[in-house]
Design the sequence.
């Protein structure tokens, strides 16, 4: 029933899964949020959220700015390049594709 | 049970709520024996107006609510439903319609989508139309099938909700097949929780242990086969499992319910427990109700817990279980949920489940006390 069962956190830069990153390079994936998922800024808590019919996912750190670029037009490489320009010192090239794959595995990105 | 003002002031402010269950009406064309609406249904003339709902939703958004489930009864009975959806959407709240599907026509759905409706959850009583009719006390299967197809054509996510009990647990495979053929994104297989009409019909609904075990094994097989193609949610049968549920994610912790007449409750079943102590949006701001009302602070946190819960490591996972269930089964809402195998009252629940096995042997079809229509 409703959000009672699931307010979940999605943290970028967490799970090192190199295989996922390799797949993303081979296939020019243009990630987009699936039909059930909305990206929202939560003005009360000051965080970005993924809002699903029965679930709310809190996006930590830079996650919201990554998901905001998943518009179905940008390729993963393009998203990485943009973020790398904005955050030159962050391990963007390694971690963003992994993060995107995790969201795809959850069914939030297609 | 009133918390003294000094104590209340010392209590840290609660985190904001995430979700609001809006019971727009207790009117419903169905009469399901498992309905969790209270036995005493709200008079349709006492319902909040669309303007009042709009105000409630704006207050809820300011408080932190990001998601609302527009439910009932049957919310489609509200002719002003699109206005309420629009109010939620413009306040920044995600809307899901929770419906029987009866009354969802193409034009109606188009108006709701225009107003900002994001998702639909459709109830299914049984994958077989005639069996469904017997459970719902009404003929609705064809309307549901059409509703599912309309929702999919509109491009909205579709969830099916199946409340499970002894008359449909063995049809679990067919529920999943139905979800696939109707194009659902999600099928919620929710074992009956015993409140309101479901509590009244408990003997007719409660499955035995073997039946639950069969269904659970099927869910596991389906999860492997589906591999994420369609989400399957299993809401556990707390009586049979002997495990208390983390009810509502804790009392007054995650979400709130607004009943058709504006009564605000920590969970949809809490009307029975709170009675006249339940606050109303006609009298108070939602913010005050969430933060300070006796109804919401009474079982928040752990101070209210009995010794059984206070010394138990499960309390951080199940928050002591369900207050409404403790009240319904023992008359004392502060006791450990009797569904928990560690509760001193668990014998009550075990005896009921043993009784279910005996009824299976007798083979009598369940006799339902159908839900009445709202006055």
Sequence:
């Amino acid at each position: 029933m409703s959000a009672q069962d699931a307010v979940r956190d999605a943290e970028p830069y967490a799970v090192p899964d190199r295989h996922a990153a390799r797949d993303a390079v081979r296939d020019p994936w243009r990630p987009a949020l699936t039909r059930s998922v909305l990206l929202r800024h939560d003005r009360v808590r000051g965080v970005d959220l993924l809002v699903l019919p029965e679930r709310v996912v809190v996006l930590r750190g830079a996650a919201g700015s990554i998901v905001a670029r998943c518009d179905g037009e940008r390729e993963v490489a393009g998203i990485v390049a943009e973020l790398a320009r904005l955050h030159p010192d962050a391990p963007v090239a390694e971690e963003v594709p992994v993060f995107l794959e995790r969201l795809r595995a959850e069914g939030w990105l297609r | 049970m009133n918390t003294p003002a000094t104590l209340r002031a010392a209590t840290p402010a609660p985190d904001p709520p995430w979700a609001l269950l809006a019971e727009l009406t207790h009117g419903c064309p169905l009469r399901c024996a498992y309905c969790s609406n209270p036995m005493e249904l709200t008079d349709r003339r006492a319902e909040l107006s669309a303007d009042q709902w709009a105000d409630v939703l704006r207050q809820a958004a300011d408080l932190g609510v990001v998601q609302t489930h527009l439910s009932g009864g049957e919310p489609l009975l509200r002719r002003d439903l699109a206005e309420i959806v629009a109010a939620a959407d413009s306040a920044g709240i995600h809307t899901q319609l929770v419906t029987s599907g009866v009354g969802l026509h193409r034009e109606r759905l188009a108006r709701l989508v225009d107003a900002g409706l994001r998702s639909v959850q459709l109830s299914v009583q049984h994958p077989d139309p005639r069996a469904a009719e017997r459970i719902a006390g009404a003929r609705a299967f064809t309307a549901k099938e059409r509703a599912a197809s309309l929702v999919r054509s509109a491009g909205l996510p579709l969830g099916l909700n199946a409340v499970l009990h002894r008359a449909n647990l063995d049809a679990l495979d067919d529920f999943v097949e139905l979800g696939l053929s109707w194009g659902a994104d999600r099928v919620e297989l929710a074992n009956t929780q015993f409140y309101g009409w479901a509590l009244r019909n408990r003997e007719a609904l409660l499955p035995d242990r073997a039946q639950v075990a069969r269904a659970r094994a099927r869910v596991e097989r389906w999860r492997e086969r589906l591999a994420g193609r369609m989400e399957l949610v299993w809401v556990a049968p707390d009586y049979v499992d002997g495990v208390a549920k983390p009810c509502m994610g804790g009392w007054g912790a995650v979400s709130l319910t607004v009943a058709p007449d504006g009564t605000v409750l920590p969970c949809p079943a809490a009307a029975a427990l709170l009675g006249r102590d339940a606050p109303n949006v006609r009298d108070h701001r939602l913010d005050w109700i969430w933060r300070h009302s006796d109804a919401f602070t009474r079982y928040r946190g752990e101070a209210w817990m009995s010794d059984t819960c206070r010394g138990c490591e499960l309390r951080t996972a199940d928050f002591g279980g369900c207050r409404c269930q403790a009240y319904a089964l023992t008359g004392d809402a502060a006791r450990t949920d009797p569904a928990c195998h560690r509760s001193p009252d668990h014998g009550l629940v075990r005896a009921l489940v043993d009784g279910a096995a005996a009824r299976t042997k007798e083979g009598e079809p369940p006799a339902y006390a159908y839900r009445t229509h709202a006055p």
